[in-house]
Amino acid sequence: MAETFVAVIALAAGFGAGYLTRGRRRGPSASLLPPDRYAESVTEFADAVAPVWSAQIDSSRTQMETAVGQLTETFGGIVEHLDSVLTSSSGVLDEGQGGTFDRSRQRLGDVVGTLDQALTAKRESLGELHSLLSLNEELRQMSSEVTRIAAQTNLLALNAAIEAQRAGEVGASFGVVALEVRQLADRSQNTSARMVENVDRVAAAITSVLATAESSAEREGNAVAHANGEVQAVLDDLMDMLSRIRDSSQQLEQAAVGIRGEIGDSLVNLQFQDRVNQMLEHLRDNIVRFPELAADAATGAAVLDARILLDDLASKYTMAEEHQAHSSGSATKVSESEITFF
Amino acid sequence: MAKTILIVDDSASVRQVVSIALKGAGYEVITGNDGKDALTKLNGQRIHLIISDVNMPNMDGITFVAEAKKLPAYKFTPIIMLTTESQEDKKRQAQAAGAKAWVTKPFQPEQMLSAVAKLVQP
User: Fold this and answer.
1) Is B46 helix (H, G, I), strand (E, B) or coil?
2) CA A336 – CA A338 distance, rounded (Å)
3) Contact B103 A323 (CB under 8 A)
4) Distance between CA A127 and CA A120 in Å, rounded?
5) How much is the average pLDDT of B20-31?
6) Contact between residue B85 and residue A318 where contact means Cβ atoms under 8 Å apart
7) DSSP readout, A50-115?
8) Which residues in chain A have their CB less than 8 angstroms from residue B14's CB?
9) How large is the ipTM?
10) Given this model, what pLDDT does residue A2 score?
11) Which chain A positions have a beta carbon within 8 Å of B103's beta carbon?
């Protein structure tokens, strides 16, 4: 566009001098156009090129505005998505670290605790069985004692029967009593023997149950200890995984924040479109005036004065760098933003 | 509750850039394409601050500020002019119309947010 601007200014400046110098450019042998034909050709030239230049500038403005508009919209969408992802990612991590994980640890701990309680109850039952076995042994000893007492009683009854026999008719009734006592002693001895048998059977049954229960309790104890270890290992693995996910997420978060910042900076730079658009608009408006001035000059109503176009152009400037470029004839740096509070 | 800011600029890219900066700082944003369009947005809704360009088609920014200040609901709404305009007389006209600050483009988001934070009403 700068080239177009230079061409317009050069054309305007050259038009006035053109007629005067054309003979010199063409040389002494060239035939000269009549002045009115020359002026007419310049007007035709201005009428022809000014709309095309203007249209090209408008086309450039439109294309740039559309492209930059789409770019800013796309960047804006990316920034919004990044913000959304950053927000949700942060929430999930907080929940994962402080919420779900702790709740899982608590629930698994409860399960292991329940198993521990069941095992403790079983061990208490085993203790009861051991007590029962001890009682059974006491019963067996008591039965043996009864057997001995019955044997001694039987012996005493036998001696009593013998003494009753010696006493003759006087001891006959005593002999009957002694016989009854011997029979009772025999029955006591038999009962005691059966008790010992039963106590032994009970002892065997308790011993068998106790062995099975102790074996089972040992296996369950090992299983609970193993489960406890496995639960801790799983929790450690989960914690490790969560920690790595957290680290990775933090890195992603930092990258996203960085990208967001870079996009923000890029968007700031896209403000050039608004400035360039205004510059091109001023230039286009100035070009549109050129045929009018050329026509005035051709009819002799006014001289073709570049200052008219340039002053008109300068009156449209809004930016400091437009004024600086106008006066210096070269591109100037964009001024820093300034804030004034009223 | 988020503060609402009206952005008035004929450049879509500038509207977008300002919107992103303000939304990132937690503000809600509505936009107008020029002064005339922006006046239709001043329909009684609560607006905490207005950021307006100066040179716009249909209705320029200074006229828009003057018209907005005539509306009772927006008489005390602070207005920042965001513009490429460098002429001092335009700046004085904006001040006379009721603008509270003048920011030149291209702006840095931090500068804009600082000015907004200073002027936005609680």
Assistant:
1) coil
2) 6
3) no
4) 11
5) 91
6) yes
7) HHHHHHHHHHHHHHHHHHHHHHHHHHHHHHHHHHHHHHHHHHHHHIIIIIIHHHHHHHHHHHHHHH
8) 271, 274
9) 0.91
10) 45
11) 337-340
pTM higher than 0.90 for the full model? no
What sign has the CA pseudo-torsion A335, A340, B2, B4? negative
Level-2 CATH architecture, domain B4-119: 3-Layer(aba) Sandwich (3.40)
Name the closest residue on chain A to residue B85, using Cα atoms: A318
Beta strands across the sheet bearing B4-8 = A339-341, B101-104, B79-83, B49-52, B4-8, B28-32
Q: How far is A105 from chain B (nearest CA, A)?
A: 38
Per-residue three-class SS string for A22-45 = HHHHHCCCCCCCCHHHHHHHHHHH
Question: Which of A271, A319, A342 lies nearest to residue B17, judging by beta carbons?
Answer: A271
What stretches of chain A adopt beta strand conformation (E)? 339-341
Tell me: pLDDT of B77 over 90: yes
Q: At what angle do helices A272-299 and B12-24 cross, to 10 degrees?
A: 160
Our CA-based measurement puts residue A324 at a distance from the nearest CA of chain B, in whole angstroms, of 12
Q: What are phi and psi of B52, to 5 degrees?
A: -130, 140
What residues pair up with B96 in beta bridges, in sequence order?
A: none
Instruction: Note the pLDDT tens digit of each residue in A7-62.
Output: 444 444 444 444 444 544 554 445 677 878 888 888 899 999 999 999 999 999 99
- Residue A179, amino acid: L
* Neighboring chain A residues of B107 at a CB cutoff of 8 Å: 268, 271, 337
- Residue A314 structure tokens: 């300068």
